[in-house]
Fold this sequence. Notes:
Blueprint: H1 16-35, E1 39-40, E2 46-48, E3 66-68, E4 74-77, H2 81-92, E5 100-109, E6 121-130, H3 135-151, E7 158-163, H4 164-174, H5 178-189, H6 193-202, H7 207-215, E8 220-221, H8 225-232, H9 236-255, E9 261-264, E10 277-282, E11 291-295, E12 309-315, H10 316-325, E13 337-341, H11 346-358, E14 363-367, H12 374-384, E15 388-392, E16 398-402, E17 408-412
Parallel strand pairs: 1-5, 7-9, 13-14, 13-15
Antiparallel strand pairs: 2-4, 3-4, 5-6, 6-12, 7-10, 8-9, 10-11, 11-12, 15-16, 16-17
Helix pairs in contact: 1-3, 3-9, 4-7, 4-9, 5-6, 8-9
Amino acid sequence: MKKLLHTPEGVRDIYNVECGKKLALESRLGKVFHLYGYHDIQTPTFEYFDVFRKEIGTIPSKDLYKFFDKDGNTLVLRPDITPSVARAAATLFGEEQLPIRLCYTGNTFVNHSSYQGRLRENTQMGAELMGDDSVEADAEMLALVIECLTSIGLKEFQLNVGNVDYFQSLIEDADLDEEAEERVRELINNRNYFGVEQFLDSIHVKRSSKEAFSALDELVGGVEILAQARNTAPNSKGIMAVKRLERIYDVLKIYGVEEYVTFDLSMSGTYGYYTGIIFRGYTFGTGDAFVKGGRYDRLLEKFGKESASIGFVIVIDELMNALTRQKVRIVYTRKNTLIVYDEERLKEALILARDFRKKAKNTELVKKSKGKLIEDYIEYGKEYYAGNLIYINKNGEITMINLVTGEHKVIASRDRS
């Protein structure tokens, strides 16, 4: 039987400097979450199938990784963390007097067809604000996303913000059935407005509705397009959706982050549980949106608790790709002390390492191989460390080498035997 020792398609190993940078990035983003008052939560990597069933509004069943427990229950690897957090909030939190703010880091798993290097396992960091249906809550989530991205040095990005109620008002006005609605969503998501026009003609939709759908192509831009959207809204539902976006924008101006926001009234939401504003973050160097979020006021009802909610996730793997391609430096220094010792000096090396560790200095011990030069270890240290290399030779001489500047300093020269 052939042994498969490489990783399956769609997953990969992350190690050394890349892994260190990823963890440093996650740590920085986590600090911003905490600055906004969000509290950490961890949910299971796998859940019962019911948590992600079709009625919840997450990804299709065919794209789930499914398996069974010993009792025959169907389990799935989570494709999306929001339903897991919603389930936990509905079952663990009682009648809270204040909104619940939760944040998390975890991996998600989607069994989609791989293309363009798309991963099936991704790390996501997210925040969820539950128990607040206000405009201020919507603006807070957008401001939090923007501060997360600017805090790590990302400058060239934008948040596309829409409202599913506006899109839904067009669907209702056109009186589309479920199948027709799905087809229109697909065409608009692909920006195929000619296809939308042809399809609506084929099912004899009234002229005013066709014109409203065609106008979506122009309803993308700055705050000025909201007035145009209000004028083309077919009913009060659409008008109220636009007015909410206008009020959100007013709050974003107080935060001072409005420059990063673009409005897009054609957005209809990837997940079926979205009920209000939705948003996507884009930057060059990624193949897809690396920020995904929106309001989901009825999701917690599926788990037995009524609570208006909004949240988002940052896809860390996509963000890492963008930062690398944009040459944005991820601040990561591996300030380890590397102690290299000749075989005769094991005792001194262990004592020195113990002293360093007591002082909270990360310390790595390496016994020098016969035939290798100390210069070989210095080159290794320069590649992976930003601290010091200490060499204890067989005569007991201890030399400290600064791996950044290359400076050598003898700190003990007598035989210590």
